[in-house]
Specification:
single chain, alpha/beta, Arc Repressor Mutant, subunit A, D-Maltodextrin-Binding Protein, domain 2, 9-stranded mixed sheet, transcription, DNA binding, WH-like_DNA-bd_sf, transcription regulation
Length: about 300
């Protein structure tokens, strides 16, 4: 027996003094209301209503039980309201600032179809880690080395003019003998100012004979893109970003540079939703090519390696 449903029928009938009117108020057929009240009476072993006359009246037992029944119905209604609010609880997620707004909006729409109320908070790599650490967000898409990543975004160099070779060799960026020849810089945007990307590129540049100033971190993506659009400088970026800025993109021959991302922070349920249910949509936001059904060799995002 559904005790809450039976108590709801009991309260409705007692309030209207009629099985017909009470059932209508409860939104159930009169026969269902009668069966539920009868089941409740059988459960308690005593009659709740005196049915000897046309009007339905509470017995003394029914009068004593009515307050408890009302409290149970009210509590069930309150629980239903709490459950609805819990389902609508926003899952705040820190995401890379490089995610295009249109793709983030599509991610939010896709999440709502799955009954996930997503709120995205774009931030740089250190800020995303801080937000997760201080619990200001429920989870974050954080930068990690390629080997432990759930999402992988290949990086290359982008320029305003076409790059004839299929890949960029860093030694080709060495300045010539003429002192008037400008040194082409490689501009690292803040999203890639992390040790596992910045340091290998800096070491490779030094090995290739570039001067230290030729590999530099830009204050922002806008500053880096503006420099690439207005000079011979090269922007370290994903193919998606190069297309957004109408730049010509080629991968770096050596070292191979790949942004890695994984889910950090939050409860396991939230991490699972981001790493499985919304895996493809997040890959689209990050610019990861052709996401596979099983990320990271079958490892779900956020799982330990």
């Amino acid at each position: 027996m559904d005790v809450v449903a039976a108590c709801r029928a009991f309260v409705a009938v007692s309030g209207h003094g009629s099985f017909t009117s009470g059932a209508a108020a409860a939104g159930i057929p009169q026969s269902v209301a009668s069966r539920r009240v009868a089941a409740l009476e059988e459960h308690f072993g005593a009659r709740l209503f005196d049915r000897s006359s046309r009007a339905v009246r509470l017995t003394s037992f029914g009068q004593d039980m009515l307050p408890s029944a009302r409290r149970l119905v009210d509590l069930a209604d309150a629980m239903g309201d709490d459950a609805e609010r819990a389902r609508l609880r926003p899952l705040r997620v820190a995401v890379p600032e490089t995610c295009p707004p249109r793709r983030l909006a599509e991610l939010v729409v896709a999440a709502r179809r799955q009954r996930i109320h997503l709120e995205v908070r774009p931030a740089g790599p250190p800020e995303r880690e801080r937000l997760c650490r201080t619990l200001e967000v429920g989870a974050g898409i954080v930068a990690v080395p390629e080997a432990t990543a759930a999402w992988r975004v290949p990086l290359g160099l982008a320029a305003r003019t076409p790059i004839p070779a299929p890949a960029v060799f860093l030694e080709t960026l060495r300045s010539g003998r003429s002192r008037t020849q400008a040194r082409r810089r490689i501009l690292i945007q803040p999203e890639d100012d992390v040790a596992h990307l910045r340091d290998p590129l800096t070491r490779a540049g030094q090995f290739a004979g570039l001067v230290p100033a030729q590999v530099t971190v830009a204050p922002s993506l806008v500053d880096a893109a503006a420099a690439a659009l207005g000079s011979p400088d090269l922007l370290l970026c994903s193919r998606q970003q190069a297309e957004d800025f109408a730049l010509h993109w080629r991968p770096v021959a050596d070292p191979r540079l790949v942004r890695g991302y994984d889910v950090a922070g939050g409860v396991r349920e939230d991490r699972d939703q981001l790493g499985t249910v919304l895996y493809a949509e997040i890959a689209h936001c990050l610019g990861a090519p052709d996401p596979d059904p099983g990320p990271a060799g079958g490892r779900a995002a956020g799982e330990p390696t």
